[in-house]
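Lesson 9: reading folded outputs for more than one chain in a single document. The general rule is that every protein is listed as its sequence immediately followed by its structure tokens, and records are never interleaved. Here is the first one.
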Amino acid sequence: MVLKVFFPSCCSSADSGILIGRWISEQNSAVILAVVHFPFIPVQVKQYLGEVQRVTKVSVSVLGSWSNSKQEKEESLSEFLEDLGTIFSHEPWIQISKEGDSKFWSCSTLQKHSNNPQEEEIILVYYDQRKVMLSHLHPPLDTAAQGAEDASKLSAIFGTVARSRVLFMTDRYDEGPIKLTHWQSDGVEASIIVELMKQASVPACMLLTFLLSLVSGICRSRVLKFWPLSFLWSKLSICEQLGHRLQHLQVISSNRKAQNQTQLMRKANIFVSLLIDVALGILLMSWLYRKNRIGHLADTLIPVADHVAEELQDLLQWLMGAPAGLKMNRALDQVLGRFFLYHIHLWISYIHLLSPFIEMILWYVGLSACLGLTVALCILSDIIALLTFHIYCFYVYGARLYCLKIYGLSSLWRLFRGKKWNVLRQRVDSCSYDLDQLFIGTLLFTILLFLLPTTALYYLVFTLLRLLVVIVQGLIHLLVDLIDSLPLYSLLLRLCRSYRLAAGVKFRVLEQQDGKPLRLLMQINPLSYGAVVQTYRLPTYSCYPRDSWASLCKKLFLGELIYPWKHKGEKQN
């Protein structure tokens, strides 16, 4: 049998005493937590360990003795340490002694109550107690049986040190009957700023909770459920983003304590994401209101809209002629061209009607950047959607007309083959048609077939324009989702204190000599940056349609409408 003793490196220079920790019988391992110095009263030690065990729910006991021969040179010390095994009855009784300035330590076990004592091979593993206590061991991403078993063994060791936090709250300056050596024995690690922030966070969270409950009550009111407001709330990106941030603020201001490390990291990630988002928004707002950039932007917006309208008029004039040498149906071509030109004329009149108020609108819109950069980006996306509304109308008209002709041609093609679509059974069945039905079907099929190229050309041009707008809006929403979902606190923690996010451990051999225990150093392997993002990624409010290329081409061919994004609970057409 191999006995593994996990010894804290901070106790290597401790005075002689007894070792307290947890014995893990399933792994035949001993996790040393602290050293109790001489002199002490055994009854008080047992009472103290009982209180620690009651608070931490960890079976802490006396595992053995520790001898530092550099400070204790009495011959009776070894006999006294062996006699302690009769007072603190633990099997096996571990004896570790440091031999002066030598690199090698002696480690042995005593089994007084065993009939057949067997000599065990001992492995002495040093670990950094502070890092192990503060770190959180993550399960492996792969589900291999061996990896899961190793992770469960390591989690028992990490959990023992993490749950024994109460044991580390006493230092050498405490006037108690028991003196301990652990990673905080020289003084409890604390920060005045952190303690002040904890005290100030309680009233701040109460005030924020009250304000958020008031705002959420207004949002859940029946007024917003009526048609115009409910439609705008579901379609505008700014409303969805504000609702998403409202949920984040409710999570942060909640007075419920985090149940596990995952919930704590989620709260921290949301808090840091909000801070960085608001900071970037304030920087953007300060840049916009400096040197009258809002006025320059408003003066530029109208000429750009006029230029886009002129380009669309030139495009329609080109389509109404002979585009690329193609011969179109002149009557339908003229009707469609004039119809779209009239819409452009209406759009130009609408833009010029709003031109006196554009600077004021942009000035108030710029103030919304103080709520965060994501809010400003969502407003930009909505502004782009409003400024390109005429392109969207052109795309819808062309798509509906093209879709109507495609489905009409497919239905008439089934008529030629003596088939029909059964609506009840959702399948194609055989059907007999008379001569009049076949004649009318032939005429309609011929008309639709010869009108299809003209309609398809308009549909293709406006689909490309619509896709261009969709790509721009998609890039904006991808940036918003990146800011919303990126676990910034976890990434900063991985960069500055990588041991806090542990993926596993590695062992480095320190010394090895015949007759002496093997000495290993346990080091923490941090999570990779990709694993950090995958583990702590925050949910976003919008879900993008992830259609395959075949599905997308099918939708374009059939003339089905394509939307840039799809909100929660909304089905894509």
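And here is the second record, again sequence then tokens.
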Amino acid sequence: LLLRWRRRRALWRKVAEAQERQELSLVRMEAAARRFREQHPSVNVVSILSLPLPELSKKLRDGSLPPDHVFYAYVGKALQIATETNCITEFLQESETQLRKAKLMEKQGLLYGVPVSIKDSIDCQGHDSTLGFIKNLNKPAAEDSVVVQVLKRQGAIPFVKTNVPQSLISYDCKNLIFGQTRNPLLYTRTPGGSSGGEGALVGGGGSILGIGTDVGGSLRFPAAFCGICAIKPTGNRLSKRGIMAGVIGQKAVAAAVGPLAKDVESLALCLRALLSEDMFSLDSTVPPLPFNEEVYSSTKPLRIGYYETDFFTMPSPAMRRAVRETKQLLEEAGHTLVPFELTNVDYVIFNYCVRGMFADGGSSFVKKFKGEMEKGGMGMFFWLAKAPHWLKTVLSWIAKPFVRMPFIGFVSFYSTVDEVWSLHHEIEDFCHQFIAQWKKLNLDVMLCPMLGPALGIGYPAKLSVAVSYTMLYNALDFPAGVVPVTLVTDEDEEELKGYKGYYQDWWDRTLAKAFRGSVGMPVAVQCVALPWQEELCLRFMKEVETL
């Protein structure tokens, strides 16, 4: 007992030190912003913050806007949003040195002088990538991740790291070290996750461009919940070297790194900058596919598949309306909309995604929590993961009549090597069947629902099943982006009173509660393309955004 007490005390000391560093970061940001304001009282910060990224980067490159004006404008705004939402974990002090060097740069990259926020799990030299784990504190990265290196070579200035949920396997944003991040639009709501700090900071206007990751919706949830745009590219379109994963080594569900921003044009500019020779030479495993300008700028009418529901997670009234209204606008603009029928989504989620990620029965995931003081609301999961196989089977059988899946069974998904190989083969087959259905309808892109509006804080931990709309495209490894298209209305709220769900079980009842009280909150749609067609995906997103 004494040993355990000492261990816990040592952990709390590490947490307290990390929290002090976080507080000191905000103090330094405040001092830097105040010093700049005193030295440059005539700088119009509001006009700088109102510029969209393409316009801002143009002004930075042509010299009509000094980089330090932009940098300190965003440092000040980021500090405000961090104070309101608790989204920043660390100010990257070397960014001020980089700013001074940027002024001397001869070759100005596409993102010259642009301040960029970086998700906690993406390595920045000299800084921790904690994933919300105490054990990862005081373990600074030896070098920048490839994405951060390329951003810097393109003239961008990474200036803060942002909060994540413990382990990243969550679409909320809370950990024991840095606490809960709140949605900038409504503080009682989650900003989404796992790139939740990015969603809150970009959504609140404290960063003009953020970089996050996505293994089940971790870019798309924060963007949709905070009313901004994001794109999850094909898994290997951008380098993942130097990026920490929630579950290491699994190949069933493709993770991706991608940008978040206020508009689609900003996402396109970021991908143009990243898909450069710099990236291809730093990571030779990334296919050397530069940004295809012709595809992105095309005005050819599109043939678009669409669906309003996956028949697993019943959409909220606002989700359904978002798809219907977007479909109508696209048709009026001259595009062809074709119904697409989704089948067996429950099988895909539980047998490909969950089973694929936890093929070892969850043991490697559970190991990550060893020695931690908090299990991120996963106490039942850990107990089950450690329970003997016969007990899991019995509990699964007992639970079957009451829940939509063998819940207990998903932590008894321990697989032998040949079963894992068989699973990977099955996922490949599913992907080819999905593409065959897509090509039979002669589709260019797909319009899909996106979970929304933002759920109340704490609800995502109870509603892991609601990742069905996003995680499907990680299993398929298709590029998928989100664009906000509407706000929840009084009529949506009234209609929600009749929400029953497809299974009318505990999850459906909980989801109905989680959606309530959301009038005025943003709702997005998902835009999807075939693998490696990020430019077409962005072109479609731009069309949706414009309409």
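What the second record shows: The CA atoms of residues 145 and 242 lie 4 Å apart.
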